[in-house]
Structure formats: structure tokens, C-alpha cells
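Changelog-linked ticket: MGD example.
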Amino acid sequence: MAMTERIRSYCALCISRCGCIIVRENGRLARIEPDPAHPTGRSLCVKGRAAPELAGHPARLTQPLRRTGRKGGDPLWQPLSWDAALDLAAGRLQKIADEFGPQAIAFSVATPSGTAVADGMAWLFRLANALGSPNVLFTTHVCNWHRDQATRLTTGADIGMPDFERASCLFLWGFNPSATWPAFGERVAAARARGMKLVAVDPRRAGLAGKADVWLPVRPGTDGALALALAGLLIGAGRFDAGFLTRYSNGPFLVRDDDGTLLRGVESGQESGIETPLVWDEALGRAVGAGQAQAPALRGSYLCDKVACRPAFERYAALCLEMSPERAEALTGVPAGRIRQAADLLCEHAPAAYYAWAGVNQGCNVTQTSRALAILFALTGGFDAPGGNRQWPKPPLADAAGRELLAPGQRARTLGLRERPLGPAAAGFVTEPDLYRAMLAGDPYPVRGLLSFGSNPLATRPDPARGRAALGSLDFYLHADLFADENQESAALADLLLPVASAWERGGLCGGFQLDRQASATIQWREAAVPPPGEARSDAWIAFELAKRLGLAGQFFGGDPAAGLAHVLAPTGLTPDDLRRRPGGIELALPDTPQAYRQRGFATPSGRLEIYSETLLAQGQPPLPEYSPPAEPGGEYPLTLTSAKAVPYCHSQFRAIDGLRARLPEARVQLHPATAAACGVGEGDRVELRSPQGWMLARARLSAAMAEGVVCADYGWAGEGSYARLIALDAMDPVSGSLPLRGGVCVVRPVRPG
Ligand SMILES: Nc1nc2c(c(=O)[nH]1)N[C@H]1C(S)=C(S)[C@@H](COP(=O)(O)OP(=O)(O)OC[C@H]3O[C@@H](n4cnc5c(=O)[nH]c(N)nc54)[C@H](O)[C@@H]3O)O[C@H]1N2
Ligand SMILES: Nc1nc2c(c(=O)[nH]1)N[C@H]1C(S)=C(S)[C@@H](COP(=O)(O)OP(=O)(O)OC[C@H]3O[C@@H](n4cnc5c(=O)[nH]c(N)nc54)[C@H](O)[C@@H]3O)O[C@H]1N2
Ligand code: SF4
Ligand SMILES: [Mo]
């Protein structure tokens, strides 16, 4: 008799974190099924459903392997025991730390939105901090920093989540959840069914964009101009929430015309003599402290003690009104009439909700684009408001990343921190240009070792040739992964490969699912469904074992992962056993106060929503979300280039899984039939994409659901299908270090066989 067990769990493979039921037959992982009782459990994608193939895959790494062959040549892997592998790693790391200092050891960690690395991520960061390494190569600068941290410059919070149940209009801006976040996409579809309006800003009419009330086919990289134009239409028609902006934003703060700083003065009756920002009080006809004004002006131009000043909002309004829909059409390719339609929906259904992700996070102007979006959607009072974007309460977990373990002097050495102090480096995250320079040229100091937990920078970040040279130059490179197949080009340069258990073969904690209020309050422990293949171990286990060998057990809960988990859970009052007894998760009763800023203010330096950012100004950056254009197509390179995620894969992963590979066996490039015709390209042709930096080969897919003049290629492939080769590493966003994976220029031509 076959024994069948059904275990409530969740799929950890991507941001959707879909609640699921694991079906185990005779101890084997037979399949996973949706768990409709779970807040994220209504559907599963093909990657999740491939769980049995992933868990039992013959190409999985099953034992530690050490390189015996020359780098760049045949690696000639030789198996060794875990003890020998960990001792080897600890010895080599110690040697680098002794010779060059611990900053010479960098870490690299895969994306938590497109892998399950979140299971062990805090322990990996803790290991870096305890070891004294201030340098973690992470994906945030090309993924979510802008969505969350650039937004924070404006609102003091991340983007939040659309209030799916109440929103009457939603903008999906450079975000295609039906392919990348099914639980989100499913909520959008449900909201649409009850009448919610949908606007999609995307050069492709893909997924939900196909059902949008208005589709804005933006030329990649020009989103900032579009956001300003929409704001200009709202402001020009007076369709914004002036009461909110006057009371809760720094829009009324007076900005000096001469130097662009805020006008400050001592409020009357203030004994302390501390200067505060001044506003123009229309009731009194003079400038007074922001807290004292009866009728602060948002618009106008004023002389205050002979200094010409304008409210910050006036300057912002001027910037937006300069961007007429017609001018925006010329820059973005979106017809002016459609921009007007979208603006109408935005005001008629205020406060509109929005979500913007990877489509607007990969370019040299993305910090200001995210600022432009955050301000646009705040104009109608949507911040944390019912029907707008909500900040749902999350379970209170202890942060185990151990930032306090890294000495301030060592933290100050994070690569790129001096150049971009507001960017990801402030949290210890480095970018490829800075890291590769330190590896290749020892500038500003040498980086000689790398501990990589997943991640495939050669496939997912620009200029793999430079990346290959950098990784190949290291004294010691440890790579821990599930696979080291031919698509994992980075791992091929490692000195030591460690086999990692997949999410189905190890435990993991999800402390709040991102979706709605209920999901956000849910905490769930995922038990291993099956044992790992061979000797594969979890990332957390590897981090604890390395810590012990490096003499860091004291900073690692005595080397006991169970003690670590208990520490993380302590603020919730739950124990690991509580969670194990409730495998479907526990919903915490967390108080929810919409628009809590009314009591607490915004978590910004001024306590207000910052339309005008003095923080950016102090860094020599525009204090308003000024638009800077991406490369201009023309001449030899007449097309604009972008890419998008494909359903069967996460980035460079899963090419070894036959059931997924069969769905998309090679890189494609999508282009409009008119664009294709102009290039002499037909449906199904093999084509070459060429940019000023390099070339790739792909299969042409013609689609009228594409903006004209734009090509959208798949990425994450190795070899001649590699998109990364099209992009240079010589330009970045000045605040965040984001890299221009999108918005570059290119040309497409057919490759004739033979
Ligand atoms: N299947 C699958 N799911 C995933 C992942 C995966 O690799 N595969 N990765 C996970 C991760 S790490 C992330 S970050 C999320 C990201 O999720 P998404 O943000 O949805 O990811 P993308 O497909 O990269 O980009 C979204 C949309 O932006 C459009 N776009 C491209 N260029 C531009 C532009 O310049 N402007 C605008 N407005 N739109 C543009 C694309 O056509 C695409 O439809 O997905 C997560 N989920
Ligand atoms: N052209 C272009 N490039 C892009 C993007 C794009 O839209 N277009 N998107 C960017 C984005 S949003 C992101 S987030 C990055 C992603 O960049 P990466 O993080 O480099 O993404 P992956 O290619 O998914 O590499 C993940 C690796 O980690 C391994 N892995 C998976 N799970 C685990 C685990 O639990 N533990 C360990 N140790 N290893 C694991 C996988 O097998 C794989 O080898 O790519 C960026 N690159
Ligand atoms: S969308 Fe797919 S891969 Fe992502 S969590 Fe859900 S089932 Fe897993
Ligand atoms: Mo990402």
C-alpha cells in the first residue's frame, strides 16, 4: 500500500511564496498542490510544480568538490569530505584576512526574490559581519533598492502594497505580476473583476497589461518623464489633495532661489534658537515657522528679507508642468492622449494604488524615477490610505544579520560607500564595478576572497568578460549552490564548490508573506519535505559550520542553529515548536492603523513626505525628481533594448530541468512586426542583437503587443545567448549604483544559416 502524506507548506522559490500542500508518497516528494486556505495559496506556477524534478535532479551537486585543474581550463573537480572542505575554506579565508584584512573577503548572495536563499540569508550576512567583511555583492541595486529605499527618501517607507480589496485604480508600472508574482497577479485579477481600473506602464502589453484599461507603451528608461507628465496634468487641473500636501508634505517649505536650500529661521517664541524651515503664511503675509502657519502657501513666489523664495511644491509643479504630454510623447513614445486618459483615471479613482518593480529599477536614472513615482501617487493622498498603497504590519522578528558585529571603522570601508553614501553601500551591499575593480586592481584596497551563496553575476550582471577576469583573479572563491551546470558560468571559476539543499530539502521561516494584511501577519515554518541529495546541506548550516571553524561561534549562538532560530522568533512570543505544530502558519494579531503618519509623522528627516529632498541636495543630487534621459537610439543603433522575466525560469536558473527547459529552450527577442520588418527580420528567425558593448543571438518573436522601436530579449542564458554581454559596466545611477540593464541602444539583424 502506497503511503501518502499531505503537508501544508509554502513554495520558497520566488517572491510569491505560494502557500502549498506537499504530497509525499512513500517518503518521496510526489507533487505540490495549491493550498487555497493559505493567504498566498490560490495557484502554483510551473517552477513550483517542478518540485519533484528539482529535488531529485541528477545534475544536483551532492558533495563538496575542490578544483584541481587550472582556472580558465578544465576544473577537474575532486570530491572531499565536509570536514576537509570546511577546514580548507576556513584556512584560506584566515590566510587572506591575516595578509590583507577581513575587508579583502567579499560575500555574494543570490536574490531572495527569485531564489529561496532567504531561508539562510540572515546567517550569511551575520557571517560577513562577524568576520569583519563590509562587502556583500547583492542584487538590490538592480532589483528592489529603488522600489524600497529610493521611495524611502520621499515617504520614509518602502512602496508598501496595493490595498487590493479597496483600490479603485491600480497602476502596474514596469511590473508584470502574472509572470513574476502569481499571488499578486491573482489579486489584481480579482480586483478587476469587481471593477477596479488598471493602467499598465510597460513597453510590452504582456500579462495583465493585456487587460488594462489604459496601456502606456513607454520607451525603456524614460519612465521618469512620464511620471512628471502625469503629475503635471494633475497639478495643472488642480486635481490633487492640497490639504494633505500642505499639512503632511514639505511642499510648503520655502526654497531659496539663490542656492536651492530651504529657507530657515527661528520660530517666534522658540527659546532654543534652533532654526526650522519656514513657509509663507498667506494669512499673515510673511514667512513663519512651518509649525506656526495658519495658511501655508503651496504655490507662488515670495520675497522674504530680500531673499527670493518659492515653496518646494511650486518648484516641483514647474518641473512637472514643463513636461507637457506632448513633450513626454516625444521622449517616451507614449501618445499624449493616452497620458491624459491615464491621468484622468488616476484622479477619478483617487487615491490610486501602484506597484513598480524591476522594469524601472535597472538604469542610470532610477533613483529619481522612483522619487517621481512616489510623489505622483502621494499627490492624491494615497500614502498608507485605504485604497492606496498600504504599509501592512509585519511580525516582529529579531534581525539576526548582526550589523552590530561589524566595527564602524570596518563598515566605513564598504566599497562604494564614499561615492554613494545613500545607496546600498550604506547597508554593506556593493556593486560589480566597485567589486571587480578591487579584485582586479586592488583599488581602493585588494579583495582576494569570495564566499558566494548562489548568485550568478556572470549571467545576471553586465560585462561578463570583466566579471570572469575578476572572479578568476581571486586567491580563493567558494561557491555554494544547488547546481554547477553549464549555465552557472560563475561557479565554474570557483576553487571550492559546496552542495546546497534545495528549499524542499531544508527548513525555512517566512516571517510575513507580502500580499495583504492577513498574509503580512502570517508567520510560517516550512519543514523539509524530503532529505537532501547526497551530502547537500542548507546555507544556514554552512554559515554556522564556517563560523565555528573561524572562531566565531560566540557570535553564532554557540554554533547552535536552533538557538539562533529561537532568538529570531523571541519578539513574537512564539517558539520553533509552536510553529512546527501549525505547519500551515500562524496569523498574528497585529494592530493596523491606516495613515499612521497623522499621529507619528513620516519617517523622514523633516517628519513630512519629502517632495524636496535636502538629503539628496546635500549629496549634490537634484532635490526634485529631475528627468535624465537614457541613451538616444539612432544611427548604427536605432532600437531601444530591454529585457523581461520568463515564466519557466528565475533569472539564470532551472535550465537543467527538462520540464521547464522544454517550455523555453533558447533565448528569444520580442519585437513589433513593423520594427522587425524594418530590420529584415521574420517570425522565428535566428537574429543577432548588437549593442555598442557586444552581441547575443536569439530567436525572433514578432508581437503587436510591443512598443515600436523597442526590443525585449530574454536574459540569464550562458554563451552566445547571453544578454549580459550587451551591457557595459561603465555607467551607473549616481545614488544607488544601479546598472543600465535596460534602456540601452541596439540593432537587430537576421543570422542566415550556413
Ligand atoms: N518567473 C519569474 N518570476 C520572478 C523572477 C524570475 O526571474 N522569473 N524573478 C523575481 C525577481 S528577483 C524580481 S526582481 C521580480 C521582478 O518582477 P517584474 O518587475 O515583474 O520583472 P520584469 O519582468 O523584469 O519586469 C517587469 C516588466 O517591466 C517591463 N519593462 C522593461 N523595461 C521597462 C522600462 O524601461 N519601463 C517600464 N515601465 N517597464 C519596463 C517588462 O516588459 C516587464 O513586463 O520577479 C520575481 N519573480
Ligand atoms: N538583463 C537582465 N538582467 C537581470 C535582470 C533583468 O531583468 N534583466 N534582473 C535582475 C534581477 S531583478 C536580479 S534579482 C538578478 C538576480 O541575479 P542572481 O541572484 O545572480 O540570480 P540567478 O541567476 O537566479 O542565480 C541564482 C543562483 O543561486 C542558486 N540558488 C538558488 N537557490 C539557492 C539557495 O537557496 N542557496 C544557494 N546557495 N544557492 C541558490 C541558483 O542555483 C543559481 O545558481 O538578476 C538581475 N539581472
Ligand atoms: S510563483 Fe511558482 S516559484 Fe514562485 S513561489 Fe509560487 S509556485 Fe513557487
Ligand atoms: Mo530581482
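Closing comment: Example verified and attached. The radius of gyration is 26 Å. Residues 16 and 463 are 30 Å apart (CA to CA).
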